[in-house]
């Protein structure tokens, strides 16, 4: 639209129009969104933004690692405006690869808690997930109350957990290392490994399925995987949810480990203002609702209601979340990988 009007207008006026279009957050135009999200409710999330702003969203959807590789390969010519993905550890990797630029926004600073955004404004969290402990209520009378408890020898042969190459496991150990130091973190990882019922395999849903099938009694998973089974139809899990107990760990100490779905503006964003407008939109009440609901996550903005299934599994009155700045998860990522490698955790 801008190009057509520019052609029709005298040159001086055309420059004015162009300058306006670039400086206004609500200019017509486009937004190229590189996203690893793929939820049914997202259609409404995106169409509302398009209606409110007149900005058309072009979506490129793939796994986070593929998107990061693609942006790296595209370099200065990348059409990417926004990278939207999960886990602060991944956003950190994108930043380390030089793919994100710092954004200052009064809206984002006010709406998003400080610990859920990068200190330089390179990325912002828009929903939270907690990594919690699930157990078979028929088999475990005294479930672990903390991540530290997972390493207690009394749970030997009972615990299922994912492989150490998984970003959720890396981020969890990165947080623990920040709280207790490298040596104690390694002792913990060794204890967890010693308690495993089987070699690490599969995704979070597979850990929960292994509890349902009796292969293990205790598992670690992000909240939304269980909420998905409560609210919908997850093969090998829905129908068995009654046997599960849930512990939000470390309520008496550091709080439960949380992570985010988040986004940042691409270093070479051709539509930088539209990208900022999109991030600010994601922090609005209505977008928070869709964004968190789509994957049964906790909104980052206070006062937005939880999805039914998530509400059902969350302690009444909420839970104490670890308030560590999530940037630390990225900074301690290499250390966490080293610790897992040292002890031979697969
Ligand atoms: Fe996940």
Record the SSE blueprint.
Elements: H1 2-8, H2 11-23, E1 29-35, H3 42-53, E2 55-61, H4 64-74, E3 82-86, H5 88-96, E4 100-101, H6 106-111, E5 124-136, E6 159-160, H7 167-180, H8 182-195, H9 204-212, E7 218-222, H10 223-231, E8 244-247, E9 258-266, H11 272-282, H12 285-293, E10 298-299, H13 308-313, H14 327-331, H15 333-342
Parallel strand pairs: 1-2, 1-3, 6-7
Antiparallel strand pairs: 3-9, 4-9, 5-7, 5-8, 5-9, 5-10
The chain binds fe (iii) ion.
> How large a portion of the residues is in β-strands, by DSSP E?
15-25%
Q: Report the mean per-residue pLDDT as an integer.
A: 92
CATH class of the largest domain: Alpha Beta
Proportion of helical residues: 40-55%
- Helix and strand composition category: alpha/beta
- Spatial extent as radius of gyration: 22 Å
Identify low-pLDDT runs: 1-27
Coarse morphology: globular
Q: How many individual helices?
A: 15
CATH homologous superfamily descriptor of the largest domain:
Periplasmic binding protein-like II
Report on the biggest sheet: 10 strands, mixed
The ligands found in this model are: fe (iii) ion
Total domain count:
2
Distance between the termini: 54 Å
């Amino acid at each position: 639209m801008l190009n057509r009007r520019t052609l029709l207008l005298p040159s001086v006026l055309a420059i004015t129009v162009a300058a306006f279009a670039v400086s206004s957050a609500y200019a017509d135009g486009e937004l190229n969104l590189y996203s690893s999200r793929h939820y049914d409710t997202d259609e409404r999330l995106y169409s509302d933004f398009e209606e409110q702003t007149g900005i058309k969203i072009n979506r490129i959807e793939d796994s986070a690692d593929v998107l990061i590789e693609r942006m790296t390969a595209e370099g200065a010519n990348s059409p990417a405006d926004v990278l939207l993905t999960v886990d602060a550890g991944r956003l950190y990797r994108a930043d380390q690869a030089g793919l994100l630029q710092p954004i200052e926004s009064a809206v984002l600073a006010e709406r998003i808690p400080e610990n859920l955004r990068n200190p330089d404004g390179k990325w912002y969290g828009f929903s939270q997930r907690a990594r919690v402990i699930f157990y078979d209520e028929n088999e475990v009378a005294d479930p672990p109350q903390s991540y530290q408890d997972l390493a207690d020898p009394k749970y030997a042969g009972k615990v299922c957990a994912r492989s150490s190459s998984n970003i959720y496991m890396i981020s969890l150990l990165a947080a623990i290392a920040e709280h207790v130091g490298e040596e104690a973190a390694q002792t913990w990882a060794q204890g967890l490994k010693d308690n495993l019922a089987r070699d690490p395999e599969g995704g979070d849903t597979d850990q929960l399925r292994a509890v349902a099938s009796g292969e293990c009694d205790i598992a670690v998973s992000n909240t939304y995987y269980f909420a998905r089974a409560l609210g919908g139809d997850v093969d090998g899990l829905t129908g068995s949810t009654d046997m599960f107990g849930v512990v939000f760990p470390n309520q008496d100490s550091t709080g439960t480990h949380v992570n985010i779905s988040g986004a940042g503006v691409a270093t070479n964003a051709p539509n930088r203002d539209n990208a900022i407008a999109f991030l600010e939109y994601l922090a609005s009440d209505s977008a928070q609702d869709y964004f968190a609901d789509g994957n049964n996550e906790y909104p980052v903005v206070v006062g937005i209601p939880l999805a039914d299934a998530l509400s059902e599994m969350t302690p009444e009155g909420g839970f104490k979340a670890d308030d560590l700045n999530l940037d630390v998860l990225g900074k301690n990522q290499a250390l966490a990988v080293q610790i897992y490698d040292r002890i031979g955790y697969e």
